[in-house]
Amino acid sequence: MGNGLRTLRLLGAVLMAGTCAACFENKPEELGSNAVLTSCERSMDDPPPAVNGAQCGVISVPIDEARPEQGTIDVFVKRWPSISAISEPDPVFVIAGGPGQSATQVSDSLSQAFFNLRKKRDIVFVDQRGTGDSSPMHCDGGEEDTLAVLHKDTREETLNLLRQCADEHRNLAPFVTTPYAIADLERVRQALGYQHVNLWGASYGTRVVLEYVRRHPTVVRSAVVDGLAPVELALPFTMAASANRALQKISQQCRQSSECSERYGDPERNAQRVAAQLSQQPVTLDIANPLTAQPQTVVLDVEKFSSLIRMLMYDRLASKVLPHLLASAAEGDFALLGETVSQLMSSNIFAQLAMGMHFSVVCSEDARIANAPSPETFLTVDLSDLMLEACNFWHKGQLPEDYYQPVRSEVPTLLLSGERDPVTPPVWAEKVAEHLSNAIVLVAPGAHHGVTVQGCGSALVTQFIRDLLLTEEKLACVNDIQPLAPYLKAQIAQDEEALP
Prior knowledge:
Layout: H1 5-8, H2 21-25, E1 38-39, E2 55-62, E3 72-80, E4 92-95, H3 115-118, E5 123-126, H4 155-168, H5 178-191, E6 197-202, H6 204-215, E7 220-226, H7 235-255, H8 258-264, H9 267-280, E8 283-288, E9 295-300, H10 302-312, H11 322-330, H12 335-346, H13 355-366, H14 385-391, E10 413-418, H15 427-433, E11 439-444, H16 457-467, H17 472-477, H18 489-498
Parallel strand pairs: 4-5, 4-6, 6-7, 7-10, 10-11
Antiparallel strand pairs: 1-2, 2-3, 3-5, 8-9
């Protein structure tokens, strides 16, 4: 994505399960020496947890099953025990996206989505090796920076940072691919004493879920995949095409609304106009640092602009402001863009993605796929260029011979997609479902990257995992997740007046 290490972080997506009653009553040693989970530690500075009674611990797994002398790695696990004293024996395992996102770090943001499931089932979050507290593979010299210093990036400087990162993680990188994640999940399941599990994965996590279903079909009771990212997605090659599709849909909605089109014109055309301008002359933005409130300068070029617009399209609510933002920028007013950059700087989305793990998966799996499509450009930028260059020197892992074959399964599976998803559009769910004999495919017309947390999404997931089916009412409710109306200037003014 563009020419900066921090720009590349915007690839990730969010944009993600415990003990049975009998297992919870057992002594820790009866579950195995690797399965001792205790109350999660918190510092005085940590915010209150979204769920009380969470349990945490590590389970040691071999780095390489074939070569035990390579040593072990600790996989970090967080569990929300079921609320009911009489719980179901099969938990929900939650798999995060990215690749490179920590499941335990995003757990609190999913507390409401899994609240009803937690009444009867444990929810288990597993930090995939290379993420979170499972030997995270971060890249020094850039990952803690923010959008404020993007202007310091050059292509060669970024590649040098990535070379350093590749060298730092050269020993572990070949062993953090999806197949190793599957082996780790199976060891976690066995260590916690579960005979069967339900799986929920988002974005890249859907790939992990599908591969687990392939390797361990008899232990999977149900699977929910939200925002399909199968290996065939070939991420570097399809990013721009998916982003173009999402921007076209947002622009089409505005053009079809007389009020939106009169105020903002054509958002896609405005975006192209701004991209052309920034290609010739980057813009300097003066903003207030969200942490210090001190003035700060941000230089915005076309690479950062394209990445910023693409990232905003991940989020359903953020996309509401895109027509206004693009129209203002096209008229030479970049104030709203500057405020948006400031908001992103104050978020923790950047620090949570382990870029070393991200590249290890993408370079070993996506970038090596045969017959990959030729990449498009998004707002004049080739989003795949730098990533593919980094993959030339990244240390890659080996994959099973059948890894690129479609996953065939009879496991009850719910496939969710957002019609406006800028990275995993519905076509991937349709392709995957062709080989699943017991699948339900649902597309939410107004959802972007992630359906579970939108509208009736969590109710859909709850009913499917509980009953292994969906009622007609639930099947229909996904159509109620409609595109949000664009913000209009009058609405924004009213919202600002209502602020305390």
